[in-house]
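wait is this the right file?? whatever heres the structure
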């Protein structure tokens, strides 16, 4: 994921998106949605990074799942600081009112596509905007789930790996 997101290796998006799309199609999850919406980036972040990693993954996943990708159904209304390193409460407040959805979601079953979910704050904030705009249902497809531990298994709070639930 870091290779895609921080080093711009877009081929990773094709692999991850294809695998995700095949999985959601195989388990029937694709039949429960009308449209795939990648988590929007603020235009400033998009300009800095040069691409939206969720949209890059999403175009492959949506194609494999047989659902349209519609990135313009919502936008990031304000430029929020990165979520990395924030605790759950700060993540929620960081994203409050960060998204706006268009009227085109009214009556549709929307799936949000995200690269990584940690606390679910991004998904929750975007789902709220979609429901407020009239989406009949909102689901999420994510490539990965982060639990907040470092790669070596240690907890950034200082808890030991065993205390953090690792054995």
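ok assuming it is, sequence goes like this
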């Amino acid at each position: 994921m870091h290779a895609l997101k921080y080093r711009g290796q877009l081929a990773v998006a094709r692999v991850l998106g294809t695998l995700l799309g095949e999985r959601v199609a195989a388990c029937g999850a694709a039949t429960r949605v009308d449209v795939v919406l990648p988590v929007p980036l603020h235009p400033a972040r998009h300009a800095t990074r040069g691409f939206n990693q969720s949209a890059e993954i999403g175009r492959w996943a949506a194609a494999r799942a047989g659902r349209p990708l519609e990135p313009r159904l919502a936008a990031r209304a304000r430029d929020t600081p990165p979520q990395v390193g924030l605790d759950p409460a700060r993540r929620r407040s960081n994203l409050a009112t960060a998204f706006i959805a268009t009227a085109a979601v009214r009556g549709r079953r929307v799936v949000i596509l995200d690269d990584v979910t940690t606390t679910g704050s991004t998904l929750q904030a975007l789902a709220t905007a979609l429901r407020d705009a009239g989406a009949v249902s909102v689901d999420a497809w994510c490539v990965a789930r982060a639990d907040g531990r470092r790669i070596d298994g240690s907890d950034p709070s200082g808890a030991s790996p065993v205390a953090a639930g690792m054995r």
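Residues 45 and 110 are 24 Å apart (CA to CA). so i think its the right one actually
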